[in-house]
Amino acid sequence: MIEKDLDTRFQEAFEIASNMTQASLPQDVQLRLYAFTSRPLLDLRITINQNILI
Questions:
Q1: From the centroid of its chain, how far is CA 50?
Q2: Residue 25 CB neighbours (<10 A)
Q3: How far apart are CA 52 and CA 54, in angstroms?
């Protein structure tokens, strides 16, 4: 798969996901999506806080 093709597929998937309502997703899918987004944000906050203390 070439890079442009991957970028195009990601953009298409992002558009589809952005247009979904929360009610249309089963709760287990909602929980997984939350886990995928909350953990990186937590790691980012920890990194930022550590950099401020140094």
A1: 23
A2: 14
A3: 6
Distance between CA atoms of residues 37 and 54, nearest Å: 27
Strand positions, DSSP E, 1-54: none
pTM above 0.70, yes or no: no
Instruction: Please check whether residue 29 is in contact with residue 21, taking contact to mean a CB–CB distance below 8 angstroms.
Output: no
What is the rounded CA–CA span in Å between residue 39 and residue 46? 11
Q: 2 by DSSP, 3-state: which?
A: coil
pLDDT by residue (tens digit) across 1-54?
566 788 899 899 889 988 988 889 899 988 888 887 776 666 666 666 666 544
